Amino acid sequence: MFREIEIRTKDRVDFVDITSKLKEIVRQSNIEEGLMTVFVPHTTAGITINEHADPSVVSDIKKQLEKLVPANNGYSHSEGNSDAHIKASLIGSSVNIIIRNGEMMLGTWQGVFFCEFDGPRRRKIYLYIK
């Protein structure tokens, strides 16, 4: 099963918790056992699984990524978003999530985040469940 979802990000760097959207899609799929691949088809955005119970975790991740890869650091890329490309490469463009008994097998505190590094924008996320 293939699905495409669209989201709008609000800031240049924005982490959007998409866990509940993914859970609903898994529920609608009626797939009891399988694997869901979540893929981001953008070079300045990514996807990650991390804690979604405490928002300070996302804040800390954003701060550390900015320290590692500052927005303005004399990059050669003429569009002015090299930092976004680098951050997206560090985070990654896909995650796989096991489905068992019709539910995503995430840990108690885990959530799935779309990571925007060059927003605000309208973005796509591709899902493949089998």
Automatic annotation (TrEMBL):
PROSITE patterns on file = UPF0047
The record, for Pfam families, names: YjbQ (PF01894)
The transmembrane residues are: none
Q: Which InterPro entries match?
A: UPF0047_YjbQ-like, YjbQ-like_sf
Signal peptide range: none
This protein's source sits in the domain of life called Bacteria
What's this protein's family per the entry? Belongs to the UPF0047 family.
Q: What is this protein called?
A: Secondary thiamine-phosphate synthase enzyme
**Source organism (scientific name):** Caldicellulosiruptor acetigenus 6A
